Description:
This protein is mainly α. The protein is built from 20 helices and no strands.
Amino acid sequence: MDAAADLALEPEDSVAEPEGPAGADDAESLDESLVQRLAAQFVDTGSPDAGVAVLRDLLRIETRRPRFHRLLRVWVGKLTAAVRAGDLTRAEAWMRGLVTAPTYPDEFSDLVGEALDEVSEPQVLDDLVVHLAAADPLGTGAGLVSAWGERLARYLVQSMVVEEPPVNRRFLVEFLSWVGRDDVRLLAALVADSRWFVVRNVAIALGRTGRPQAVAPLESLLGHPDHRVRVEALRGLFVLRRGDLVGPLVAALSDPEPRVRHAAVSLLHASPSREVVGALVELLEASPPAAAEARRLVELIAERADPAVPAALSRLAGRRTLMGPGRVVRDAARQALEGVRQ
């Protein structure tokens, strides 16, 4: 028999916990007609949220702990069944029915937490991520993932470190970004993880959230000890700031790791900001890098579609420097200036 029908038809004496004198709480507890409505709506009507609204009403008015627990058992069964069937839309309806604008009394929060723990067991979440990865188009279950929240975030991070995760790790990173769309703080709390590869994945996920609140945790990673984390922090900030990231990118040109410097050059090349040319000129005048990188930065200036380019190149080409990186900059600027004038 369906779990909701069990809820409607189960005899009173099957409840383990005492409920006080007969009829004492009837006015404040479950209205039997509502229970019957719930049972009827659990029949598959084709609607993804069938029964959810009624369950929310029941959670709101139920004051007896054993009956509230029985309602949550129904919820666990329905959500778990939807996940295992790959019905992500229905699963989202059930999840949001409990966690979005909660209707239940605060004194039952512990029972709700236990129910959420139960649906967040690894076996259930393994099924969930497999269905998410197979969804067409990818992103079909983004709302469900963001509603699942912290428990799912912990599972995704743990799955990143096992030898054989249930799906490719690139999916895990994508799903983690969906968690952060509702609450970036869940991802920001992970940037202090001691494992560089976890933090790198978190940085990627933060950049994909599209949330301005993700800027601060990404900025905190620009000085991370591992260069792979620093690279992803730059890329994530570039996306979130829509390319307006000239200061940190120019600073990254002095990073001791070549991969970070290369990433900074590529992002500066893609940046639409009109500040790029002036910032690079200042860097090349004050502390030019080694010869090859200095020439590449001059070329980057010359490639910009910016009316300030000729004057910038003339400024660099006119420097009176006879040796060292400064001379490389001057000669490269003169050559680039000839190309611009042609």
